[in-house]
Amino acid sequence: MKQLALIVFIPLILVINSCTLSHFLKTELGTEVDKFENRKTNYLHFNFLPSKYGVASIAFDLQRIDVDDRIMSYSIIIRYVHADWLFIEQGESLVLLIDGRRIGFTSEGSSNHREVLSGGSVLEEAQYAVDYSTLQMLAHASRIEMKIVGDRYYVTREFEKSNFDNLRNFITRFPTK
Q: What is the pTM of this model?
């Protein structure tokens, strides 16, 4: 019984203390099919970026949506989990330095995609349109630095080898047709 309590409560305590979720969730590459709408969503989930301070967990995820076997769109989805809200802004709220070259991305922000998780952490999501050539540039870059702008402050991260590997796996598995 003591072991079960440790198995259940230690991860909960770690999440409550805002330790990175990347220790708990494995990167996932897959496809979801909605046969009613003839829609397919190809995705990269849980592509967590490393944090130097062990605070907010941030995932840089991707998706490709196909309808009637035609590619409709590619998107970057930022998932932010922390003890406090960032309130990701509408407009240019994602900025990447790709090998020193600045590229800004706009979105509607996270206003329609916020929730309180069990344990009191908060989740925000913001979605950014991106074209395939930019995804290729990201996957083959040497260095990517990221900034996410909220209405209170901003957060930064830098990609590491596993993040680049995940991007390359996505574009290899889900290329343009």
A: 0.83
